[in-house]
């Protein structure tokens, strides 16, 4: 279970200079756009993005980029595969050109379903899981979900007086 640190007034947020993963003091920070899992209502999907700049040491910054570039490569390959299998499954001229039987096989349907399932999962389940810290902004309030213990402690220490009141 990941911990959450909530900052009441986000405009007065003081970001500590400690890597969000390992807690090493670091001068650099990583700027990226965080994608939230889509909120889906019948027929509509809302995509929410948050622009972030978080302290990262060189090592964990590199790992962050590597993880996301691998995800992008996997998504691109799955997308190309889905389009290719979709075309060969449903377009008779393509089937004829490739000398495939007229009726698509079960294996083709299964492959198509699996590639689509991966694409959907990669957006809903895999991507949010790849962030070291997940940031949620609601009005003025900012909450940080996850992150290493040193980062969490430094974040709390740097923002005393700007934390939710404990009743
Ligand atoms: Zn680090």
Question: Can you characterise this structure?
Answer:
By secondary structure, the chain is an alpha+beta fold. The chain has two domains: 87 residues, no CATH class; 71 residues. It is 44% helix and 22% strand. It has four helices and seven strands. The strands form three sheets. It has a three-stranded antiparallel beta sheet with strand order 1-7-6, covered by helices on one side. A two-stranded antiparallel sheet has the order 2-5. Strands 3-4 form a two-stranded antiparallel ribbon. α1 packs antiparallel against α3. Zinc ion binds next to α1.
Keywords:
167 residues, three-stranded antiparallel β-sheet, 44% helix, 2 domains, alpha+beta, binds zinc ion, single chain, two-stranded antiparallel ribbon
Q: Which outline best applies? A: elongated
Number of domains: 2
The average pLDDT score comes to 89
Helicity level: 40-55%
Describe the structure concisely:
Helix content is about 45%, strand content about 20%. It is α+β, with helices and mostly antiparallel strands. The strands form three sheets. Strands 1-7-6 form a three-stranded antiparallel β-sheet, covered by helices on one side.
Layout of strands and helices, then pairs:
Elements: E1 4-7, E2 29-35, E3 39-41, E4 44-46, E5 49-55, H1 58-90, H2 92-97, H3 106-129, E6 133-138, E7 141-146, H4 149-158
Antiparallel strand pairs: 1-7, 2-5, 3-4, 6-7
Helix pairs in contact: 1-3
């Amino acid at each position: 279970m990941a911990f959450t640190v909530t900052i009441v007034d986000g405009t007065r947020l003081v970001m500590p200079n400690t890597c969000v993963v390992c807690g090493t003091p670091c001068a650099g920070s990583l700027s990226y756009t965080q994608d939230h899992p889509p909120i889906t209502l019948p027929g509509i999907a809302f995509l929410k993005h948050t622009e972030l700049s978080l302290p990262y040491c060189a090592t964990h910054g590199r790992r962050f980029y590597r993880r996301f570039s691998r995800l992008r490569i996997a998504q691109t390959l799955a997308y190309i595969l889905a389009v290719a299998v979709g075309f060969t499954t449903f377009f008779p001229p393509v089937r004829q050109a490739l000398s495939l039987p007229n009726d698509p096989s079960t294996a083709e349907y299964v492959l198509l379903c699996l590639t689509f399932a991966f694409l959907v999962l990669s957006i809903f389940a895999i991507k949010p899981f790849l962030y070291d810290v997940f940031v949620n902004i609601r009005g003025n309030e900012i909450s940080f979900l996850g992150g290493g213990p040193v980062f969490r402690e430094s974040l709390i220490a740097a923002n005393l007086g700007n934390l939710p009141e404990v009743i």
